[in-house]
Amino acid sequence: MARGRDGASESSVVTRLQQRLAEANNFQKALITSLLAWVALGVWSYLIVVPILSAVAFLWLGVTGWLVWRIWRKPAS
């Protein structure tokens, strides 16, 4: 069984977190929800947006390189 930093089992850490959340007021719950939303947005951007932007940049560089190569190899008229 996994242990936390203080030697408590992981399930007791989760139980303690659930108890603290149940005792929290609306502002604290809203703050936690907001922080979780920002974390989710960061994970989403890392897993979705970054690979898409990388693919677009790679394609842009490839097309640009191909066009430069085409123009460069064109014989002088």
Characterise this structure:
- With 77 residues, this protein is an all-alpha fold.
- It is built from 2 helices and no strands.
- The radius of gyration is 26 Å and the shape is rod-shaped.
- The N and C termini lie far apart (77 Å).
Beta-strand content estimate = under 5%
Class per helix and strand makeup: mainly alpha
The dominant shape is rod-shaped
Tell me about the biggest sheet? Answer: none
| Order of SSEs | HH
Share of helical residues: over 70%
Mean pLDDT: 84
Give the count of helical stretches. 2
**What radius of gyration results from the CA coordinates?**
26 Å
Terminal residue distance:
77 Å
Low-confidence stretches: none
Number of strands: 0
Q: What are the SSEs and their pairings?
A:
Elements lengths: L9 H14 L2 H48 L4
In short:
Helices cover 81% and strands 0% of the residues.
List keywords for this structure.
mainly alpha
